[in-house]
Design brief:
Blueprint: E1 6-8, H1 10-21, E2 30-34, E3 43-47, E4 51-54, E5 57-60, H2 63-70, E6 77-79, E7 87-88, E8 90-92, E9 96-100, E10 107-110, E11 113-114, H3 123-132, E12 140-143, H4 150-157, E13 162-167, H5 170-178, E14 190-194, H6 197-203, E15 209-214, H7 228-237, E16 238-247, H8 255-270, E17 273-278, E18 283-288
Helix pairs in contact: 1-2, 3-4
Length: 290
């Protein structure tokens, strides 16, 4: 039977390596509890000098391959029995996209810029807190930039009826297919459409959603997604008193960072939203006024 992919990052690889150091002629294997899916679950695994045995499966894993993972603590690796070496989950296009380990679900990183908060919460926990600001039971949700899918998953878990999501970046969509945490959403009412958020939003029927999730790339990558014209397009989709969570990150409060947030607030107001800032979640919580 083919061994399924497992996912390792430096801390788990280090635990396996340290266990191997304890092996001797009298003890050829040691059983430990580890995660092989980036923290989604833990399981018992039997560690030997050359392999890992778990769930009646066997994975060959050399010390050299373990060291490769240990030496790169900011990368997530996929390992399978038919590959000679661990494969970092990353892709190069116009930018460098990769999964980066956290103490919970991994975050996506584009050219060194992380897409999630990782200090107070794990990315998955942050997504839950963000969705608690806007989700009510039984409502339809439009998501402009799907990313790894964490907010869409949490929206459904908190009672949303369905999420219609779009994502322009082929690289981000690929990361999503490689990330075990993103696969939680496979059986949920989440429909991901590849494409431009501006164009896709204009194809939607007016007033067809109660909630919008807007988590765009940074300003330099997608300036159109921060303009009044786009906010008006999102406003058009919302029913009366509909709500939107708009992640912005936490730019420098002084100078250009402060002006950036002031500009977003003004553009949202001009587009017909009531606006409040949530500093902990680093986003705006809005309500449709007109």
């Amino acid at each position: 039977m083919k061994t399924p992919n497992i996912y390792l990052e430096a801390k788990v690889a280090q635990a396996i390596a340290q266990t191997r150091e304890q092996l001797n002629e009298a003890q050829s294997s040691i059983e430990i509890e580890i995660s092989l899916d980036l923290g989604l679950s833990t399981q018992s695994a039997l560690i030997t000098k050359s392999k890992i045995e778990f769930n009646n499966q066997t994975l060959q894993l050399s010390d050299q391959n373990l060291q490769t993972i240990i030496n790169k603590p900011r990368k997530v690796f996929k390992v399978s029995s038919d590959e000679e070496s661990p494969q970092a989950i990353e892709i190069f296009g116009e930018s460098h996209y990769q999964l980066v380990p956290t103490r919970g679900a991994p975050t996506a990183e584009i050219d060194g810029i992380q897409m999630h908060l990782t200090s107070k919460w794990t990315p998955f926990e942050w997504a839950e807190e963000a969705m608690r600001q806007v989700i009510r039971g039984g409502e339809r949700v439009f998501e402009s930039c799907g990313g790894l899918g964490y907010m869409a998953i949490q929206a459904i878990r908190l009672g949303a009826k369905e999420v219609q999501s779009c994502e322009l970046s082929e690289e981000m969509i690929w990361l999503r297919t490689q990330n075990p945490w993103s696969q939680i959403g496979d059986d949920l009412s989440i429909e991901l459409t590849p494409g431009d958020a501006f164009k896709l939003s204009r194809r939607q029927e007016p007033q067809s959603y109660e909630v919008i999730i807007h988590d765009p790339p940074r300003l330099s990558m997608a300036p159109d997604l921060y303009e009044t014209s786009f906010y008006k397009s999102l406003n058009r989709l919302l029913k009366k008193n509909g709500r939107m969570f708009h992640y912005t990150g936490h730019p420098n409060r002084q100078g250009s960072g402060k002006r950036f947030l002031e500009r977003i607030r003004k553009n949202l107001l001009d587009a017909g939203f009531k606006v409040s800032r949530n500093e902990d979640l680093q986003g705006f919580v809005t309500e449709k006024l007109k």
